[in-house]
Amino acid sequence: MRIHTVSDFRRAVRFGPRTFPGLYDIAFITSDGAALCHGCVTDNRRNIADSIATNCNDGWQVIGAESTDMWDEGSPCDHCGYHLGPEGEQ
Fold first, then answer.
1. Of 54, 69, 61, 58, which Cα lies nearest the Cα of 22?
2. Is the pLDDT reported for residue 89 higher than 60?
3. What is the pLDDT of residues 4-61, one digit of tens each?
4. Burial of 90 (0-12, 13-18, 19+ CB in 10 A)
């Protein structure tokens, strides 16, 4: 899901941390290529919303959200280290 506006971002956060069916993690992708978990996105939603609204490329500008079901291997959240990926938290 591409995120262009703060409304898009809020809608993506409301989907929750996992997909259904499948219960795969949802990763939020920033403009600099970082992957963030739902918990970090929720905790930092004001910074993220401000970056989206002002088009500020400061590391918090989320440009998309995607399911990790198609990832070949997991990846840590670039903020907290939570394991994002098809095999869940490790």
1. 69
2. no
3. 999 999 999 999 999 888 889 999 999 999 999 999 999 999 999 999 999 999 999 9
4. exposed
Q: How far is CA 78 from the centre of its chain?
A: 10
Domain count, the chain: 1
Q: What is the torsion angle, in degrees rounded to the nearest 10, for the CA atoms of residue 37, residue 39, residue 42 and residue 43? A: -120
Which of the two residues, 8 and 89, has the higher pLDDT score? Answer: 8
- Residues 28/42, Cβ–Cβ less than 8 Å: no
Query: Which residues span the domain enclosing 79?
Result: 6-84
Residue 25, domain member (yes or no): yes
Is position 89 within any domain? no
Domain-located, residue 90: no
